[in-house]
Amino acid sequence: MADRHPSLEVLAHLADETRHALAFKRLACEVAGTEVSEDLCPQEATTWFQTLDRELATWTTQAVGREDVRLNYLLTTTLVEQRAMVLYPLYKAATHHAAVRAELGRVVTEEQSHRRDIEETCLRLLAQAGAPDLSGPKALEERLFDGFLTALENGPGGSRAAGNAPERSAS
User: Fold this and answer.
1) Mapping DSSP to helix (H, G, I), strand (E, B) and coil, where does residue 29 land?
2) Residue 125 has pLDDT above 80, yes or no
3) Which ranges in 37-68 belong to alpha helices (H)?
4) Which of 52, 75, 106, 163 is the most exposed place for a label (fewest CB within 10 A)?
5) Cα(7)–Cα(70) distance, rounded to whole angstroms?
6) What Cα–Cα distance (Å) separates residue 41 from each residue in 69, 125, 141?
7) What angle in degrees, to the nearest 10, is found between the helix axes of 42-64 and 69-94?
8) 4-13 pLDDT tens trace
9) φ, ψ for residue 25, nearest 5 deg
10) Could you tell me which of 58, 66, 70, 79 has the C-alpha nearest to residue 134?
């Protein structure tokens, strides 16, 4: 249970992400031809997200000199959304499934303005607190995501297992 009542901003974001999760689940089942009951690399995905959230909370506290739950939410969301905006277009370009391409296109379009609003608010609050830019948090996210990406590439059905490891870049 949350330790405080969520704001309208947080609830709206939760509703958007829940709608996206439902759409992706439907697509996964359609592509698989059956109900999909397991996530890809669930331990590594959980580790990436939970460690990112925890370490960004520590970074935020150090950067602004106090705990700031809203700023941590904004910072974590900014970096996760930035990651999605790198991955979704790549996946859209690579997939052969028209329904997947269409849904990814809709999600990217929806996320663009939402992501920008959150990122701008995050940057404004960081600047008001005299905190540095996002280079430190971005480097942290990239380091943590690399572990998840390696698991995806090497795990069951991962890119390397299929002999198609993608080129990797810094972001």
Assistant:
1) helix
2) yes
3) 42-64
4) 163
5) 10
6) 28, 34, 17
7) 140
8) 788 888 888 8
9) -65, -45
10) 79
Structure tokens that stand for 92 in this block: 């859209």
Tokens standing for residue 156: 């069951």
3 pLDDT above the threshold of 80:
no
Helices (H), the chain: 8-32, 42-64, 69-94, 98-128, 135-154
Residue for token digits 């590439």? 153
| Rg (the chain; Cα; Å) | 17
Residue the block writes with tokens 């089942």: 29
- pLDDT tens-digit readout, 68-107: 999 999 999 999 999 999 999 999 999 999 999 999 999 9
d(CA 138, CA 107): 22
In the block, residue with structure tokens 């391409």: 101
* Encoded tokens for 8: 């309208």
Q: At 99, which amino acid appears?
A: A
